[in-house]
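ugh ok fine here u go
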Amino acid sequence: MKTFYASILFFIIVSCNTKQTESLKWTEEEKDLTYKECITYTMDVMDMNLDESNSYCQCSIDVLTSNFENNEDARIKIENDKSLRLLFEACEG
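structure:
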């Protein structure tokens, strides 16, 4: 009987952990919002044209989704460690 309860407890822990991991991944909505913010920023502040902005922002989304769990994770880590901004240097070329 203890084995049965231990199995159920293990299953619950694994299930909850899986759901937590899934919730940390980038959603399409997050990617779209981040892309739109990037386009606005690059065109208004960095004075890029639409093609340059599109290229830079596509690259930036790839960098963000490859290196950070989600938008909030990226914002916090980049704010706390300015050297992480170097990840985007490849997008400037």
